[in-house]
Amino acid sequence: MTDDEFRSDLLAACASRAEVISCSAREGFTSEVLERLAEADEIPDTELCSETLTGHRNRKLEVDAWSMDEADDSLHLYMVLYDGSPTISGTLSLTEAREQGFNRLLGIFEQSRDGWLTANIEESRPLWALAKRIQTASLPAALRLHVLTDRPVSERLREIPAGRTSEDIAVTFQIWDLSRLRRIHDARSARDDLIVDFSSLPDGGLSVLPASVGSGDYTGYLTVVPGEVLAEMYTKHGSRLLEGNVRTFLGRTGKVNKGIAATVAKDPAKFFAYNNGIATTAGEVTIAQGPSGSIIITSASDLQIVNGAQTTASLAAALRDGSLKPGTVFVPMKLSVVPQSLTEDLIPLISRFANSQNGVKPSDFFANHAFHRRMEEISRRVLTHAVAGSQIQTHWYYERARGQHLNDQAGLTAAKKNQFLLVNPRSQVIKKTDFAKIECCFNLEPDIASKGPEKAFVSFAERISREWEDEGTRDLYGDDWFRTAVAKVILFKAIERIISEASWYEGGYRAKIAAYTAARVAKLGIDESNGGLLDYLRVWSQQSAGELLERQIAAIAEVMARVLRNPPLAGRDISEWAKQQACRKIALDTPVPIAKGFDAYTVSPDVKHAARREQKTAGSIERGLDAVKSVMSKDAEYWEALRRFARSKGLLSPEDEKSLVPACRMPEMIPTDRQSMRLLQLAQRAADAGWKPN
Questions:
Q1: What is the SS3 assignment for 539-598?
Q2: What confidence tens digit (pLDDT) does each residue in 153-170 have?
Q3: Alpha-carbon distance 681 to 284, whole Å?
Q4: Structure confidence at residue 252 (pLDDT)
Q5: Which of 231, 333, 521, 671 could disulfide-link to 319, CB 3.0 to 4.6 Å?
């Protein structure tokens, strides 16, 4: 795919987003690109805050979004340089990026710190809340400024040197241009442009010992890293160095480990003895010959810390406060070099096993859960009803992996691509993070959803992982569950659009108002049906909220906006207020107008429970049929070989023996669905014990 082709698709996705939620093309571009970067683990979850103004001494100030990264205690500010023309109108120069982007963002930070912004803009504006936070909170560990653009930059522009603020805070600069965004899409699970340079070390690089044998999936090395090198690396690159699961784990457990800090300050010579070290992965390393023929690594690309984030963050904090002295602390490091073709499968496994001794939950690795594969399969199979006079039935396309929708169009002719998009329109692509956030909202957890897609994803993962363990509950996640989930997506998109078009909407906090509106609509459905729920399948059937439900949504949204804009504590940050359980309680308990005829959109408890029983039955039948098909895809010789191996290892129970009888006599006999499920479990146990069928 060329830059032009990628740009056309990107702008089409941005335009679709802007149309759905009734926002400007620039805001649609901002939302789309920030979401892609967050999904690629390049940035933390963001808050939109689009402001342009003239500041103190006529300085031009501008910002489009911001975020705080809990993992490395850094503040991120984002600015969009959006062209939007049908064809690329030239490259973006560094001078233009500085004058129209970075300098304006830096002005936002500096005039927030000195109090000018909070004294000169209205408190109702989202920028005031950001400025107040910057002014009153402790200084961030680093300030990271980002320019997003739909134009390419010069090929020669590889890295922009870091700087310092007037208060001596490290400042880094990133330009996310068209070519870079395309590389992130092409790389899918790999990081972009993250190259760690070790060539300035005394020996010209990191001295390493080879730690792998043969020609396996990766090459391994063992080394020792000076503590200050690791700390400086983290200060420069921040949580981009952390594998996604690890970042979430670190953010939930705190930034600095007191024990590590105490050792660094009081007994640094013992650090190597007390600390387990870190485990890392890289896409590529540059190898050179060091003194006396030793092997040294001069640089590593796509470096990720999959275990040892607490150690790294603690050393960075110690470097900032002056307690880490150069040459006093050394950290053991294991480095696995994983080729790009294996990153999607191998890095999550390395991360999982490296963290198995820590309190990381299985839900932290939910991105590769079987739930997503099931939703993907259903989404490619289940068609909507044709609506509004259209003769075309479409799919709601569940994107289990980033970029699937675009990748499925690769290599298609123009006619085939148009046909694909007709059945799988861009406006009906569902990303798994959106799926999780919207489910949290309708599950009456708007406070969780307001904490951002990552936190919502963790909460959703914990619920699904828990319920998936029980076969009966797992069966609920079938076709009708998917249709219900899509109906919630339809309602949420309607909510966003209705808020944007409302006369009372002043701009800002749309995501928070939408989350609380969705929760309050769901709560109203439960209350008005005496314990039932909204009729989500009706929304699925008509593929829209409908006029009556939209009137109900509009009335609730206005009430929720008032709740959010009037926290009990005057001057409180609305974004932070929305994340509190107290806010959720007040919002869900606040009376709302009820549109006449709303009860037609509710389902009674009896109908709800009957539908749940039907879903479980349908899921059980489907699961059984899938198991039978899977067993029958192997021949009798396969199952006979499994029986011999399982007997030799003592893996067979009496029920397993009974299930193997028909399997070993196929096609004369066929196992039942229960026998088939037992056989598949037996095959997995045998594989875990070392069985390798021919």
A1: HHHHCCCCHHHHHHHHHHHHHHHHHHHCCCCCCCCHHHHCCCHHHHHHHHHCCCCCCCCH
A2: 977 776 788 899 999 999
A3: 38
A4: 41
A5: 231
- Answer with the residue of higher pLDDT: 616 or 626: 626
Vertex 399, ends 243 and 340: CA angle to 5°?
A: 40
- The HSE-up count of residue 526 (CA atoms within 13 Å, CB side) is 12
CA angle 323, 326, 331 (to 5 degrees): 90
Give the whole-angstrom CA distance, residue 539 versus residue 385. Answer: 11
Share in percent of the chain as helix, strand, coil (round to 5): 55, 15, 30
Pairing status of strand 170-176 against strand 163-164: antiparallel
pTM, full prediction: 0.72
Q: Are β-strands 278-282 and 330-337 bridged in parallel, bridged antiparallel, or unpaired?
A: parallel
Q: How many residues does the chain have?
A: 694
Whose tokens are 């979401």? That residue is 35
Alpha-carbon gap, residue 376 to 363, rounded angstroms = 19
Alpha carbons 557 and 498: distance in angstroms, whole number: 8
CB atoms inside a 10 Å sphere around CB 90: 9
Q: Amino acid letter at 93? A: S
- Encoded tokens for 218: 């990766």
Which of 637, 648, 654 lies closest to 689 in space, CA to CA?
A: 648
